[in-house]
Amino acid sequence: MQLVVDTHTHTYASGHAYSTLNENAASAQQNGLKLFCTTDHAESMPGAPHYWFFSNQRVLPRIINGVGVVRGVEANILNVEGEIDLHPSVDRNLDWVIASFHEPVFHPANVSTHTQALINTIKSGRVDALGHLGNPNFDFDFESVIYSAAEHNVAIEINNTTLVGNSRVGSVERCYEIAEVAKRAGAYLTTGSDAHYCSDVGNLSLVNSLLNQVGIPAEQVITSSVQRFTSFLELRGRAKIEAFGAL
Question: Is the pTM of this model over 0.85?
Fold first, then answer.
């Protein structure tokens, strides 16, 4: 399957990544992407920027180095109520919001707590995708969460960095199981490198292998074409991005 969008990338603004937006765009172009989402960590993560950083993404060019730039954030799930650490005023200036569990922000608890937090995050309507769900520190009821995501048109991320196996140890097998459930549920899937250095932007080889092995149809993978991705954004209520029409 061809993957032309990377929906999870970081710049040095995250505090523990090492490249600029322009460097990420150059790598995106070299690695054959049509679009990439810039998704630095929201402010609850140590070293992350103030929410003004995300609101001000409205000044970013839509095209850099011939690649479309999707304005986004990786927000933190804060609590069982499904709140995220992004001021509501920022929503109108972003195209793409990932919500993820991170240990420094949400202390790992139990399956029931994690499941309820994820379902409430989905139902909040503020989140377009759930990030790196394979982390065994945040075990959850796969069926309940993924079927809820399918019902509410929230994408499930398959994360390339997770599949390398040395980050979030124990996640790889869980990612395959998550993908199997998503296939049955008819949930949308998205693909992210989780790049923290520019050369990894667009590195989705392990994700692609997983999708092919599980047999996920391209229609469920929103990053398999520019049209599928932009149609998903519009399904989520985002405004049409005219500049991406020619990509």
Answer: yes
